[in-house]
């Protein structure tokens, strides 16, 4: 048998996760269960006309929930059942979620999650994703967790990753020893190792940014965008714009093929749009673990000390040489 399932891989790599004793296995198992449920729901989303739109009552007489609500409830259910997690922060919830079940109170881990990022793309069949971060709690086990457990910088992460619900459903994660990708085989319901030891190219041909906001970009970003469009006699035009408006899909393509993803500050949103805890920290961890760079333009994203659960930061992330080129124009 040539496949390696996620569970088998974690056991093989057990020594890579210093806090193990099977805890990471159970944490990723719980995340895997939730993502398989969401993958099933996302893949039938196109049938909502039959099943009924959000807020309506479907033919079975059930209330139809938006997929991001289903996603959020599914992860909260899976992670509170699993007993490893004492607190969660979700992009869908204003404040942190304290899991105070008998097991959960003794859970050593905290999860920050964006259960369904880019969910506005579902109705037009564009790939979307789940993004997660795993921290160790810092307060006394057995006590109720606090904001201190959740608001931890990315340099304190013990693991992070994402699931992309695209042409196939893929789980990509790192525990700080490199990045590995697993593709869901629905016929056996297992995530199977498909992209071992992902290294993002140092250079790439793709830049991803919403140029519709160009009038509000800092000058340095617009100078980079002018440069990136120049044709150069010595080489054919080397770059392409690729931006699908779903961070996980844009990030995943650039991770594998090379590229830079930019969400800069704008006059309307001086800290950009993307959330530090739910999008920027976990994706920056993956980018760095794959050999890339991720910066706010002034600081390494993983060194930003969070102050608010939903705070936003600008982000320039991806292939090292491309990120450094953007930074050159921002000086
Ligand atoms: P804009 C989706 O809403 C999201 O949070 C990310 O997935 C995506 O990269 C970004 O916002 C798109 O934002 O302003 O370009 O539409």
Task: Please give a quick description of this structure.
With 331 residues, the chain is α+β, with helices and mostly antiparallel strands. The chain has ten helices and 13 strands. The strands form two sheets. Strands 2-1-3-4-5-6-7-8 form an eight-stranded mixed beta sheet, with helices on both faces. The chain has a five-stranded mixed beta sheet with strand order 10-9-11-13-12, with helices on both faces.
Q: Would you kindly provide a written description of the structure presented here, covering whatever features stand out?
A:
With 331 residues, the chain is an alpha+beta fold. The chain has two domains: 6-195, Fructose-1,6-Bisphosphatase, Chain A, domain 1; 206-330, D-Maltodextrin-Binding Protein, domain 2, CATH 3.40.190.80. It has helices spanning 6-12, 23-43, 48-51, 67-82, 102-105, 147-150, 219-229, 247-257, 276-289, 320-330, and strands at 85-90, 97-98, 109-117, 128-136, 159-165, 169-174, 179-185, 190-195, 206-208, 240-241, 260-263, 293-295, 315-318. It has an eight-stranded mixed sheet, sandwiched between helices. A five-stranded mixed sheet has the order 10-9-11-13-12, sandwiched between helices. A hairpin with a 4-residue loop joins strand 7 (179-185) and strand 8 (190-195). Helix 1 (6-12) runs antiparallel to helix 2 and helix 7 crosses helix 10 (320-330). 6-O-phosphono-alpha-D-fructofuranose is lined by residues 117-118, 120, 210, 245-247, 250, 273. 6-O-phosphono-alpha-D-fructofuranose binds at residues 117-118, 120, 210, 245-247, 250, 273.
């Amino acid at each position: 048998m040539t496949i390696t399932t996620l569970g088998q891989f974690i056991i093989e790599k057990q020594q890579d996760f210093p806090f193990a004793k099977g805890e990471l296995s159970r944490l990723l198992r719980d995340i895997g269960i939730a993502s398989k449920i969401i993958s099933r729901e996302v893949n039938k989303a196109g049938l909502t006309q039959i099943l009924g739109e959000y807020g309506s009552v479907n033919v079975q007489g059930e209330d139809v929930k938006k997929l991001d609500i289903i996603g959020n409830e599914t992860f909260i259910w899976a992670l509170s059942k699993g007993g490893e997690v004492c607190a969660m922060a979700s992009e869908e919830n204003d404040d942190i979620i304290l899991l105070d079940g008998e097991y959960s109170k003794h859970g050593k881990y905290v999860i920050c999650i964006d259960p369904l990022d880019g969910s506005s793309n579902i109705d037009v069949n564009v790939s979307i994703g789940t993004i997660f971060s795993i921290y160790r709690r810092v307060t006394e086990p057995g006590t109720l967790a606090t904001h201190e457990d959740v608001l931890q910088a990315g340099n304190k992460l013990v693991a992070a990753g994402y699931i992309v619900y695209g042409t196939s459903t893929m789980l990509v994660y790192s525990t700080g020893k490199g990045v590995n990708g697993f593709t869901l085989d629905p016929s056996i319901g297992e995530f199977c190792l498909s992209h071992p030891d992902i290294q993002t190219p140092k250079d790439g041909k793709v830049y991803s940014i919403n140029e519709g906001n160009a009038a509000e970009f800092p000058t340095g970003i617009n100078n980079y965008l002018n440069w990136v469009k120049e044709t150069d006699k010595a080489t054919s035009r080397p770059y392409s714009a690729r931006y699908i408006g779903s961070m996980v899909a844009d990030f995943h393509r650039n991770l594998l093929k090379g590229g830079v993803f930019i969400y800069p500050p704008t006059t309307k949103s001086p800290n950009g749009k993307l959330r530090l805890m739910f999008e920027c920290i976990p994706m920056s961890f993956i980018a760095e673990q794959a050999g890339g760079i991720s910066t706010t333009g002034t600081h390494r994203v993983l060194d930003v000390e969070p102050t608010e659960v939903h705070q936003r930061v600008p982000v320039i992330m991806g292939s090292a040489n491309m990120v450094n080129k953007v930074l050159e124009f921002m000086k």
